[in-house]
Design a protein that fits this description.
Elements: H1 2-8, H2 11-15, H3 26-38, H4 42-66, H5 77-109, H6 116-141, H7 150-161, H8 169-188
Length: 213
């Protein structure tokens, strides 16, 4: 599980492409990169650092539980909510970073620039890291392997979210609808296959490791 934590340390930079990548001349790229550095949001950077620290802390607790045999209740109480807050903070920050980078790229490269290939590469990169973690945990743990973890989720989300980046308040409305309506519907679905685990639909006996940060 530690490999998942190590890969998360670079997720934010992967999800936040440089605004001028692929833009015209080398001078344009240099100017754009300088502008992007000067206009960084310290709030996002601070929360990003806090989120990464929380991931490291949670995985340290997990290792102490799973490898050292410490009596830690990771599935209830404090650690349960700590894990949820950590995962959701990380997911929200990746979405915010992606939106900010998209707006900056449009300002620098113009409204007709083809940005999707860059986001596709980043999404595929995260999916590849997620698949490597799945393979490693499958070889080490067998049935308890990570089927669809946070890196799988973020990689797929970056790709799927691209068509929605040009919208603003509509995205907020969609997020509220998905947040309140989808969980009850997903929880009501009974299935004995793991084929839809990437949608959050998994068999009742599926290990909880699939959703850990």
């Amino acid at each position: 599980m530690n490999s998942n934590s190590n890969s998360l340390a670079t997720t934010m930079s992967i999800a936040e492409p440089t605004a001028v990548e692929g833009a015209g001349s080398a001078r344009d790229q240099t100017v754009g990169k300088t502008t992007a550095r000067r206009s960084r949001f310290w709030e996002i950077d601070t929360l990003r650092g806090v989120a990464i620290i929380m991931v490291v802390i949670y995985h340290l607790a997990w290792d102490l539980y799973a490898l050292a045999g410490w009596d830690i209740n990771l599935f209830g109480g404090f650690w349960h909510y700590f894990q949820r807050v950590t995962a959701n903070t990380f997911i929200i920050l990746v979405g915010v970073s992606m939106t900010v980078s998209y707006r900056r790229a449009r300002q620098v490269m113009g409204p007709d620039a083809k940005l999707f290939p860059k986001y596709l590469r980043r999404g595929v990169t995260l999916l590849a890291w997620g698949m490597l973690i799945s393979l490693a945990t499958w070889l080490a743990l067998g049935k308890g392997y990570v089927q669809f973890g946070i890196l799988h989720f973020l990689g797929l989300s970056i790709i799927i979210a691209y068509p929605l980046l040009r919208f603003r308040y509509l995205n907020l409305a969609l997020a509220l609808v998905f947040f309140f309506l989808l969980p009850p519907l997903v929880n009501a679905v009974a299935i004995n296959s793991t084929a839809l685990v990437w949608l959050g639909i998994s068999p009742p006996a599926t290990t909880r490791w699939t959703t850990s940060p």
